[in-house]
Specification:
The protein is α/β, with parallel strands linked by helices. The protein has 4 domains: 118 residues, Rossmann fold (3-Layer(aba) Sandwich), CATH 3.40.50; 172 residues, P-loop containing nucleotide triphosphate hydrolases (Rossmann fold, 3-Layer(aba) Sandwich), CATH 3.40.50.300; 81 residues, Helicase, Ruva Protein, domain 3, CATH 1.10.8; 55 residues. Helix content is 48%, strand content 13%. The chain is built from 20 helices and 14 strands. The strands form 4 sheets. A 5-stranded parallel β-sheet has the order 2-1-3-4-5, with helices on both faces. A 5-stranded parallel β-sheet has the order 7-8-11-6-12. β9 and β10 form a beta hairpin. The longest helix is centred in the C-terminal third of the chain and has 19 residues. It comes from Pseudoduganella ginsengisoli. This is Response regulator. InterPro entries: AAA+_ATPase, AAA_lid_NorR, CheY-like_superfamily, Homeodomain-like_sf, P-loop_NTPase, Sig_transdc_resp-reg_receiver, Sigma_54_int, Sigma_54_int_dom_ATP-bd_1. Keywords: ATP-binding, DNA-binding, Nucleotide-binding, Phosphoprotein, Transcription, Transcription regulation, Two-component regulatory system.
């Protein structure tokens, strides 16, 4: 099936006609009669293009367009207008609508506009990008991630610098790799550097290279990672940890497109696209004088923000199962999935460490699993969660009540009258409690 199109019109006959026409041309069409229904559909799944009448009952097509423009700026919208609403349509195109068509319109013109709009939302990219290979490492079915990936794919078509924000462990490098694979630079190198993991005295040499004799121990010259990424993409992870001295040198590379090796006055031209990432608040770092404002604006041409795992819980079961299958194959284990209560515990966990923490938990479970389905107890152990925390109130109450009765019977050597007196319950009620928990007082007398 082709690209997904959301069609919005209160005219049932026109809605049916357009649906048939678009479906016959290979598009996957979702047709709704109102803006309110369209907004609900957008929350469920993001289409590749929206076609909407301007005049709708309740919230009109202009209000729908304004919502889409605010929430999904990369989503192309084609407006259908009668003569009386042409000024509104013209204003909408000025504000960012892709196109408008005046009723009655030619079907051929509509299909041409749809094809053009879809080309805008899915720009030419690396081979294989159209079938999802560009983002194959990113496993998700959440709406938040769908919107982010739609923007990332648009961004990939340009050479603009991108700053990827997100908490540690959310997958910033995976997103950077996906952008590289969807870009015209896909066949050139992708070089990733963690600016916070390399000592300051080594980072300059690693990034920009050095000539022979540049410093003690430099017995030969070495090309830096900026040059190694020539023609491709350089991903600077944890850019907020880069020392100020190197920020100046990186800014010069971005401005001049020339790199100077350590110990050399000769610049060499480079053609690299810079993607960077951070979990730090760079605005605060700038105010504290720890990050250069001019470099910030060079790197932050476009910002993409990865949601934490706690905001995409619908992805947790999908990710956990995928990780488990991969790790089971790696370790030669026969575990094939999670028990239902184990999967529920994973879904409810807070995940402060995001996807990286989920991988570690699943690896722990896989390593210790002895059955085909990983049990709740292993998940709790990996999460370091006490069993009581995942019990419902009713289950916890029943467990406590049984343990309490057992302790009383042990204390009284199975004497029901004494146990009932200690519990401040009459003997009949106490027998009823014992029966509910399938406890036999005689067993405790025999034990004594």
């Amino acid at each position: 099936m082709g690209a997904a199109i959301l069609l919005v019109d209160d005219d049932a006959d026109l809605l049916r006609l357009l649906s048939l026409r678009l479906s016959a041309n290979g598009y996957a069409v979702t047709a709704v009669p109102s803006a309110e229904a369209a907004l609900a559909q957008l929350d469920i799944a993001l289409p590749s293009l929206v076609i909407s009448d301007i005049r709708l009952p309740g919230k009109d097509g202009m209000a729908l367009f304004q919502h889409i423009r605010a929430r999904h700026p990369a989503l192309p919208v084609i407006l259908l207008t009668a003569h009386g609403t042409i000024p509104d349509a013209v204003e909408a195109t000025r504000l960012g609508a892709f196109a408008y068509l005046t009723k009655p319109f030619d079907a051929k013109v509509l299909l041409e506009r749809v094809a053009q709009g879809l080309q805008l939302s899915a720009p030419p990219s690396a081979q294989g990008a159209d079938d999802g290979q560009w983002r194959e490492e990113i496993v998700s079915r959440s709406q938040a991630m769908a919107e982010l990936l739609a923007e990332a794919r648009l961004v990939a078509a340009s050479d603009a610098s991108v700053l990827i924000r997100g908490e540690s462990g959310t997958g910033k490098e995976l997103l950077a790799r996906a952008i590289h694979r969807a870009s015209r630079r896909a066949k050139a190198p992708f070089i990733a550097v963690n600016c916070g993991a390399i000592p300051e005295q080594l980072l300059e040499s690693e990034l920009f290279g050095h000539v022979k004799g540049a410093f003690t121990g430099a017995v030969s010259g070495r090309e830096g990672l900026v040059q190694a990424a020539d023609g491709g993409t350089l991903f600077l992870d944890e850019i907020g940890d880069m020392p100020l001295l190197l920020q100046v040198k990186l800014l010069r590379v971005l401005q001049e497109r020339v790199v100077r090796q350590l110990g050399s006055d000769v610049g060499k031209p480079v053609d690299v696209r810079i993607l960077s990432a951070t979990h730090r608040d760079l605005d605060a770092a700038m105010q504290e004088g720890q990050f250069r404002e001019d470099l910030y604006y060079r790197l932050n041409v476009i910002t993409l923000t990865l949601p934490p795992l706690s905001e995409r819980r619908e992805d947790i079961a999908l990710l956990a199962t995928r990780f488990l299958q991969s790790l089971a194959a790696k370790y030669g284990k026969q575990v094939t999935g999670f028990a239902p209560d184990a999967l529920e515990a994973l879904t409810r966990a807070p995940w402060p460490g995001n996807v990286r923490q989920l991988v570690n938990v699943v690896e722990h479970v896989c390593a210790l699993a002895t059955s085909s389905l990983a049990p709740l107890s292993l998940v709790q152990r990996a999460l370091k969660v006490p069993s009581l925390e995942v019990l419902s109130y009713t289950e916890a109450k029943q467990r406590f009540e049984r343990q309490y009765l057992v302790q009383l019977l042990k204390l009284t050597d199975g004497n029901v009258a004494d146990a009932a007196r200690l519990a401040e319950r009459n003997r009949t009620e106490f027998y009823r409690l014992l029966q509910r928990h399938e406890l036999d007082a005689a067993q405790f007398r025999a034990e004594s």
